[in-house]
Specification:
138 residues; globular; two-stranded antiparallel sheet; alpha+beta
Length: 138
């Protein structure tokens, strides 16, 4: 499938290069982050410390984010594909945001809402044990 892993130290730079070459980059967003590596957005009514990587990559490159999830149906996994989320334009969650930080917050919240919607449809398939809300706000 021509899938490669990107190490943490070079992730942003290499991801931007791949996006500029027309490649796709995938990143899991439903993982708890340490306070310095994430921002708090609501997930199921609770603040969840969430990576800003996808929003920063999307804003920097202009690449849209396509929410894609693999779910089990019987003995097979099938894709669930969400609506494309553009980093700019009137339909973007970041439209009208004053600062880059506000745009990152709005986009990250929108991505998290996509995760929440799929988890709500398939709650038995989400790994509830990974403590998504481990990092707490002050």
């Amino acid at each position: 499938m021509n899938v490669r892993s990107i190490g943490r130290g070079v992730m942003v730079r290499r991801s931007l290069r791949l996006l500029s070459q027309g490649e796709a980059v995938a990143a899991p967003l439903d993982q708890n982050q340490k306070r310095k590596r994430g921002i708090f957005v609501e997930m199921f009514g609770h603040p969840a410390c969430t990576s800003t990587l996808l929003a920063r990559l999307s804003l920097s490159s202009g690449a849209p984010v396509v929410p894609i999830f693999a779910v089990w149906e019987g003995e097979q996994t099938v894709p669930v594909v969400g609506k494309v989320i553009e980093p700019a334009g009137p339909e973007s969650p970041a439209a009208g945001a004053e600062s880059r930080e506000e745009k990152v917050l709005r986009l990250t919240a929108r991505y998290t809402a996509e995760i929440e919607a799929v988890v709500s449809r398939y709650p038995e398939q989400w790994n509830w044990a990974h403590d998504r809300w481990k990092t707490r706000p002050d």
